[in-house]
């Protein structure tokens, strides 16, 4: 399959029908170990698929209302179905961040969009702030003509106060990394109601990308998934 700008735009339009967007991409170098493409041969190019803000939420909710109540990992399942359907007939293999063995999605995202991690580990986007996500990727055995990613301004470098490191009651994030057990214990405990209902206090304290902040019900959904770990 020969790729043109029109083919990439067609993929973007198909994803947009479910609230998803292309998040950049790149071609693997000859000296890089690439994952398998649709035929099993090494992929030559990858397109990242994700979201900005909560645009996929209504599409996901409609789908969820048609599923069994006890469906496991519903958002991952929905994402796989949507991205997998887009891959069909377009010479692509769809992969997910939760696939085993894990693929280096964060490294791919940093390369595709020129982003860097925030103190919370989430990549900081110059427009979306911390309110974005990567839901999957499309692997191709053809080279896709894509412009090189420009290194984005890293907003964390100009943020002096760092409120994202001062809002958590149990100091879950620090220079030593993420205190998973302390965070989980707090979220599950009696004082964790604000986190359970409205999301991570540190993440919400970030002053950037607030127009894309997930609504409370979306944040509560993600926090509930975290608390079940």
TrEMBL record:
Name of this protein: 4Fe-4S dicluster domain-containing protein
Origin species: Mesorhizobium humile
Upper taxonomic lineage: Bacteria, Pseudomonadati, Pseudomonadota, Alphaproteobacteria, Hyphomicrobiales
């Amino acid at each position: 399959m020969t790729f043109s700008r029109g083919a990439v735009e067609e993929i973007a339009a198909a994803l947009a029908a479910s609230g998803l967007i292309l998040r950049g991409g790149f071609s693997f170098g000859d000296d890089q170990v690439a994952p398998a493409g649709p035929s099993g041969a090494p992929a030559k190019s990858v397109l990242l698929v994700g979201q900005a803000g909560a645009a996929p939420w209504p599409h996901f909710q409609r789908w969820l209302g048609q599923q069994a109540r006890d469906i496991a990992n519903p958002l991952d399942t929905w994402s796989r179905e949507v991205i997998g359907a887009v891959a069909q007939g377009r010479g692509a293999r769809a992969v997910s961040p939760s696939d085993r063995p894990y693929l280096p999605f964060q490294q791919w995202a940093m390369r595709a969009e020129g982003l860097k991690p925030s103190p919370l580990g989430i990549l900081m986007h110059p427009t979306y702030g911390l309110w974005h996500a990567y839901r999957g990727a499309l692997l191709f055995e053809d080279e896709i003509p894509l412009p090189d990613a420009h290194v984005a301004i890293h907003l964390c470098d100009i943020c002096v106060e760092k409120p994202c490191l001062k809002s958590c009651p149990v100091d879950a994030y620090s220079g030593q990394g993420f205190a998973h057990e302390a965070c989980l214990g707090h979220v599950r405990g009696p004082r964790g109601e604000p986190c359970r209902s409205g999301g991570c206090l540190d993440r919400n304290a970030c002053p950037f990308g607030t127009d894309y902040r997930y609504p409370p019900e979306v944040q509560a959904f993600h926090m509930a998934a975290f608390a079940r770990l």
